[in-house]
Amino acid sequence: MTLQIFLDIATEAALAGGAVLQDYLGKIEDAITEKGRPGDLVTAADKASEEVVLEILRRHFPQHSILAEESGKIGNQENEYLWAIDPLDGTTNYAHQYPFFAVSIGLLINGVPQVGVIYDPLHDELFRAATALGATRNRQPIKVSTTSELNKSLLVTGFAYDRRETSDNNYAEFSHLTHLTQGVRRSGSASMDLAYVACGRVDGYWERGLSPWDIAAGIILVQEAGGKVTAYDGTPIKLDSGRILATNGDIHNTLSRELLQVPPLSSWK
Ligand code: IPD
Ligand code: CA
Ligand code: CA
């Protein structure tokens, strides 16, 4: 089976999930609960979106395995084909009706992201990529930005739900890079952060505490758009490390160096 078929079915699933999110928006106040950590929400929309995504993928690819945020592990996680699914990336935004969230569907083949679809239903933006097939936004080719200096760059990052429990919570990195750049955004949707790197709206993104379903699709999107994705120190990314550095390539080494030498927050007066 070709990557194009995986891409097309993943697109069908992402569009269906996105339609569910749109339907539920603003109608779910009673169905928002915390999953464990404070602020880690799940809504009826997360579950309903995941249900339609899973139905489509399992109907077309019954032999494949799945790692989905709400359903967990389905099938052998060592399978050659593993779908990593976030049915609603940006749940906090969604619960507040802040219009920034997406469905994210990535396919790992032998552990490597090779197909990715991210769909933002409110802006009707569909981001797609597959190995050697390029990256697109609404079916038009996209490329990363050409910004080569950190002080001319716009970055984006995020803060994981364990941020109140650890001092490794990205606050120091956020302050440090806010100082060195034209700005650092916190969008609340990791998959969209990667999609925005891929289409050149931001020049770089880093974050810790992520899960494979947050980033599997976005990794291949950034790579196919000409960008670079690694661990913070520039070594190959490990999906289960939760850490990612994704840039246009030109600012990669500089941003990596800065992330490795962040002064402690106590040095801020
Ligand atoms: C979260 C978002 C957010 C990131 C968090 C993720 P969710 O995913 O991607 O941007 O900072 O670490 O957990 O919970 O909205 O699917
Ligand atoms: Ca997520
Ligand atoms: Ca989610």
What this model shows, in words?
- The chain is α+β, with helices and mostly antiparallel strands and 269 residues long.
- Helix content is 32%, strand content 26%.
- The protein contains 7 helices and 15 strands.
- It has helices at residues 3-24, 44-60, 91-95, 171-180, 190-198, 212-224, 252-260; strands at 32-34, 41-43, 65-68, 72-74, 81-89, 102-109, 112-120, 125-130, 134-137, 140-141, 154-157, 183-186, 204-207, 228-230, 244-247.
- Helix 1 runs antiparallel to helix 2 (44-60) and helix 5 runs parallel beside helix 6.
- The longest helix is centred in the N-terminal third of the chain and has 22 residues, at 3-24.
- The radius of gyration is 18 Å and the shape is globular.
- Bound molecules: D-MYO-inositol-1-phosphate and calcium ion (CA) (2 copies).
- The site of D-MYO-inositol-1-phosphate has 15 residues, from strand 5 and helix 3.
What overall geometry do the principal axes of the alpha carbons give? globular
Radius of gyration: 18 Å
What is the H/E order?
Answer: HEEHEEEHEEEEEEHEHEHEEH
Number of helices: 7
Structural class: alpha+beta
What's the CATH class of the largest domain, please?
Alpha Beta
CATH architecture of the largest domain, please? 2-Layer Sandwich
Distance between the termini: 58 Å
Kindly give the count of domains.
Answer: 2
Strand order of the largest sheet: 4-3-5-6-7-8-9-10
Chemical compounds bound to the protein: D-MYO-inositol-1-phosphate, calcium ion
Mean pLDDT: 95
Question: Main β-sheet, in a few words?
Answer: 8 strands, mixed
**Helical amount among residues, as a percent range?**
25-40%
Poorly predicted tracts of residues: none
CATH superfamily grouping of the largest domain: Fructose-1,6-Bisphosphatase, subunit A, domain 1
